[in-house]
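Consider a concrete sample entry:
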Amino acid sequence: MVDILYVEDNPDDADIFSRLVTKFEQSPTYTILESGSEAIDYLTGKDGQQRRTLPKLLLLDLNLVGLSGFDVVKRLRAADHTRWLPIVSYSTSDNPNDIREAYAAGINAYVVKPGNYQATRELLQHLCRFWLENNTLLNFQ
């Protein structure tokens, strides 16, 4: 099972994420996808694979090219298999309208990407500790 599914279309942000989490004391398993449509296909099995066990956390950029992160959340919340999947928005936007729209779509938390490497490391450690170690999940597989 993958701990984190990270959907990010910016290769630099994806690279930073990869470099940081692999240095954690307890490094989570993760998969990075580049688009909202890839995420939907991955989580629902429409990519030709049998439907996978869901990750413990979906870390989702909202400003994706094509199918936006907002649309991804709405689709996942509408499907029985993914309705209870923990989704954290991980965005550069601190616009109140984006935050409101993301929560209305059904995210569990909204996190603004920090502006520097050290702050990003600390934030990702906190996110992993909470969502992967402390959060109690439903058995929604």
Q: What stands out?
A: The first strand starts at residue 4 and ends at 7. Residues 116 and 122 are 10 Å apart (CA to CA).
